[in-house]
Amino acid sequence: MRNDQLATGERPPAEAATRAPIGERELIWMMALLMALNAFGIDAILPALDALASDLGAQGNNRQFVVGAYLLAAGIGTLVPGAFADRYGRRPVLFVALFLYITLSIACALASTFDMLVLLRAAQGFFAAGIIALPPAIIRDRVGGDKMARMMSLIFVIFLLVPAVAPSIGQGVLVLMGDWRWIFASMALAGVVMSAWVYFRLPETLHEEDRQEIRIGPIARNMKSAVTLRETIGYTLGSALVFGGLFGFINSSQQLIGEAFGAGDRFPLIFAICAGCMALANWSNSRIVERFGARKVSHAALFAFIAVAAAQLYFANQPDETLWTFVPLMAANMSLLGFIGANFGSIALQPFRHIAGAASSAQGFLRMTSGALLGAFVGYAYDGTARPLAAALLVTAVLSLAFVLFSERGELFGEKMPEDA
């Protein structure tokens, strides 16, 4: 075991004896960019939605299904890989997910009708769900407690750089190649690069003593415990709600910013500012979470989120709302999500080290499907103003607080989590 692992209490990879150990920094970058494949798959196509809709004959808000179908199917798909990863290991399941992500990206580029594209996007999200579900389990294999929250925050810093630049990349590809289909080709290329990196550098992190049998009964019990334990269920549902509001913004952002506020050419830059603020907040969270604890930081951020969402709703109901009031408030709320997301996820996964794959899948399923459905509803409610989005952000944040209070039995700002990795 390396000295830095001994010092931090980090568990060495299961294949440490046969594979050169991967350091913490490289692991963080790798997990972040794996998760970012999904973010790239969602956000790179946003600037091309208008061209895509025109080319394939999609009407009105229907263009949002290209994003919503992926998000919802990815949420459903997260139920599948965790149990297999707990039995066969993280690497084999991850390679299957990457292969299907690449294959279906190419298929999307060849789609001839809008309905076909939506179906392929749903398949892409479903079968590549391991890219979402496995990185938290891999991190949980190695560390726990507030240290896990710190590492997940750093992962989200890098992960969020991709949605910050993905619309600009998508727009660049659209301008350079003149066809939105090349954006999907770029997704496939990114998947190939990540597959090579994982193959050569990622050791198997699942320890032999933690392997689970593939039996429906134990798997169902493991997943049930991951989403019914009172101490964690409020955090899973709470994050689903607040990120549902974020998904609503993603679904309607091109129409809201580009059309309602008349900033079509500046859409990639504005989207980058909002996502960049979220990345900066995650970096800040990584610097303070081990000192103050994931609970104290995330609870304070949730109260601030509610206050900002209330301000958003007030301005959205003014007849003369402008881009200059909408963007700062949206960026502020996305920043606050940086202090909520990684911390809520770490708290929810903390009790389940021995079944981290199944727990990550079950919680990811609940989080992603609920968030995607809510996001699709919010996006489809777009009426040419920011009112539906602002109302959704406030309502979901208040409900999230109620769920957290349930998990914490009415007491907020609790103690730090133990590092029991």
Descriptive account of the structure:
With 421 residues, the chain is mainly alpha-helical. It has 18 helices and no strands. It has helices spanning 3-8, 24-43, 49-56, 65-77, 81-88, 90-109, 114-127, 130-142, 145-177, 181-201, 216-228, 230-260, 267-292, 294-316, 323-337, 341-349, 356-380, 387-407. The two termini are 14 Å apart.
List keywords for this structure.
421 residues; mainly alpha; 76% helix; globular
Q: Write down the overall geometry.
A: globular
SS field, number of helical segments:
18
Structural class: mainly alpha
Poorly predicted spans = 1-17
User: What does the oligomeric state look like here?
Assistant: single chain
Largest sheet: none
Total number of beta strands? 0
Average of the residue pLDDT scores: 83
What radius of gyration results from the CA coordinates?
20 Å
Tell me the distance between the termini: 14 Å
Helix amount, in percent? over 70%
Strand content: under 5%
What is the ordering of alpha helices and beta strands?
HHHHHHHHHHHHHHHHHH
Task: Write the topology of this structure.
Blueprint: H1 3-8, H2 24-43, H3 49-56, H4 65-77, H5 81-88, H6 90-109, H7 114-127, H8 130-142, H9 145-177, H10 181-201, H11 216-228, H12 230-260, H13 267-292, H14 294-316, H15 323-337, H16 341-349, H17 356-380, H18 387-407
Helix pairs in contact: 2-8, 2-9, 2-10, 4-7, 4-17, 5-6, 5-17, 6-7, 6-8, 6-10, 8-17, 9-10, 9-13, 9-16, 11-17, 12-16, 12-17, 12-18, 13-14, 13-15, 14-15, 14-16, 14-18
